[in-house]
Amino acid sequence: MAGSSWRQFKAILRKDLVMELRTHEMITSMGLYAILTMVVYQIALTEAGEALDVRLVMPGLIWVAFIFMSLLGLNRSFVHEKDQGCIDALLLSPVDRPVIFFAKSAGNLLFLLVVELLSLPVFAFLFLQGREGITNPIWLLGVVMFAASVGISGVGTLLATMTVNTTGKDILLAVVFVPLMYPLLRAAVGATFAAIIGGPGSVETFWAWMTWIAGFDVIMLLIAFGLYEFVIGA
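Now predict its structure.
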């Protein structure tokens, strides 16, 4: 049974990856959104000049961009599935519903991480030139990005599945997604701030925030896992 579920998981994930490699729709749209958002940030902060240490606001700017970028990607992924009848085909096939959830979440996580990794150098180029860089180990930033992205993709997959068949799905997804993401967003900003600013006690603060992120991921993923069979079949 476990072997069958693993094969189903790989088949669904492979299908999503192949489709994206052919069209580049999600990564392109999410990447362009992230870059345009950074340009708007840069224009808005130009007048502050050297009077403002951009590192103080950079964590918040990063995660606001990532949250709304993920909204765009989640919505596009499920609208594409619905338009081509892929969701109906999955429901008619002998595939366990939790396998669909994990495969779709894994695909969304991979796409989100790719765009995040491509966006950070652009962000550093626009905002950190001529300023003091990150003093803590850079891998701390990678840890918080991965952990927060797990929660975003897991909860986002559940909510996108719920709203894909509704009228005004774009707005409805944002309305339910952003409030649920607030605890994760707050912890991710705090952990990113500790990783970027550094200083005495910053590593301890970082791991304290990471505890919040890990707790959010575990609780919300278990809830999403339990509800997905009812949501996708509705």
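The radius of gyration is 19 Å.
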